[in-house]
Amino acid sequence: MAESSTILRGKVESNQANKKIKFIVGGAVVLGLIVYLIASAISSSGAYYREVAEVVNEKAALTGKSLRVSGNIVTESIKYDPTTLNLSFAISDPKDSGKQLAIHFHGVKPDQMDREGSSAIVEGSLGPNGIVEANNLLLKCPSRYDEYEEIKVEAVK
Hints:
Blueprint: H1 2-45, E1 50-51, H2 52-57, H3 59-62, E2 66-81, E3 86-92, E4 100-106, E5 119-126, E6 131-139, H4 144-156
Parallel strand pairs: 1-2, 4-6
Antiparallel strand pairs: 2-3, 2-5, 3-4, 5-6
């Protein structure tokens, strides 16, 4: 009887050791997955945006790569087809309006896009033809809100 209890005790101890090992391995896999997801999210969304002049000057090096570009919308260049949702326009560098970058976006045209002085941040990839194929289009707040804030601050004082 003493022998059978010793054998049973050995099985219980090895079974608990296996559970500990499985728990540690499972925890390491989950932790590794979390670290990977955080790193990939930071690398894709943590990039700052480039100015139009930077993209124009580095066009060859940036072709085919994902990028985020900021610039002033050239209102005369806006072409929108509401049936196909194809939007084409150009953005210019805030410091040098002569440097422009063509943008193509498939989606709904933002309402404030036609306003003079509108600025946009475009996320996408630069094609070999020099056109940015945008998958995300964000408009910056118009400067008219800055004027409203100044009036509001003066009224509070």
